[in-house]
Amino acid sequence: MIKTIELFAGVGGFRLGLEKNNTKQKQNFKVVWSNQFEPSTTSQTASRIYEAWFGNENHSSQDITKVIKEDFDSIPEHDLLVGGFPCQDYSVARSSSSANGIKGIKGNLWWSIHEILEKRLPNYVMLENVDSLLKSPSTMRGRDFAIILASLSDLGYAVEWRIINAAEYGMPQRRKRVFITAYKEGTSIHNKISKLKTSDDLFKWVASDGVLQDAFPMNFIDDMFPNFNKIEGSLPEISDNKLGFDSKTRPFSNSGVMIDRIVYSQKGVPDEYKGKTVNLKDILQKEKVSEEFFIPAAEPQPSLLDKWLYLKGSKNLIKTSKTGYKYPYAEGPVTFPDALNRASRTIITGEGGKSPSRFKHVIKDPMSGRLRRLTPFELEKLNMFPGSLTKMKGVSDGKRAFFMGNALVIGVVTKISKSLINMI
Q1: Active site residues
Q2: Using one digit for the tens of pLDDT, what is the confidence trace for 215-240?
Q3: Taking the model in full, what pTM does it have?
Q4: In 12-171, at which residue ranges do the beta strands (DSSP E only) sit?
Q5: Whole-number Å distance between alpha carbons of 170 and 172
């Protein structure tokens, strides 16, 4: 049994994905502690939903930075740390006169993960973030990811990463995210990676032997941007961009491995998927949909549909900046209504509410032939959650949609964690 803590838990996406690997005969993963805190609200609704589904034992709804500072002993020893950590500036603060070493900038939650890893040293780590993490910030592409890789390496971890689009592996949503797995020195996986000394050895791990390749196979071609280097310098030096990251180069491809700060990354393309595919039409609820989700096509709001059509359509405009500078702006059309015979577009946090939007999903309801938005139940199913998991008295449909925009496709976690078990 792998004892797990779940950070930035939301409504429990990582936990649901891991527990898909549990059976009556064997509990492969057990979440022994979890934390969910939303700084912008006092109600902590996501945490309440988490507790309603999983129970409140060993669950914290306090600011993780406060827990680490004031009650670190409440975070138990564990084998695996998981979390979809917020996207922020990953630079580090330092003072030449400080005896305390590197400090995380206030509010930067990567350093909360780092501090827990430093003190608890779990054998395994599994993290999720937006795919643009590999090329952030825009003016120093790759610097932030280099900080994360270097800091994990300095703690004794070997690391794999891969950008995974769930829909390319049969799942119902086109959601592209980077998944990072790390293995502590002394584990069998770390021992295997530590024996890889050349770029050919590391390429073989990325392309055939690694945990992420087992879970989400890709094809790799030699001329598709291989990169083999070493991350030099202290974390403050990387943060201060002593390595010379710029806006033109992109040192980290969509798949890679790192050991002892030696990095090999390679661009891969997904294998042709031949398994069962779940499309948008397959997750639509069978129950009658409330009238509030339908778009009025006539009186009393004949202009509402027109506004949807305008926002979804192509545009060529002249915009004016705050300083008065005029510039051309163009955008292509968005499919309207959304196609039912393929995976959905990515859910965003602003999915809820009746107001027209370029990014919200609109379908032609198969039962009535009318245009409507997706229901919270359907948004949950697009992330492969149990339907109605977020349904709770006092929780609005807009808030439920927000939670799904912040969530992950749990099938991805299930497949990675299954490969991790097999590798162990």
Answers
A1: 87
A2: 999 998 765 556 778 999 999 888 88
A3: 0.93
A4: 29-35, 59-60, 80-83, 92-93, 103-104, 124-130, 157-165
A5: 7
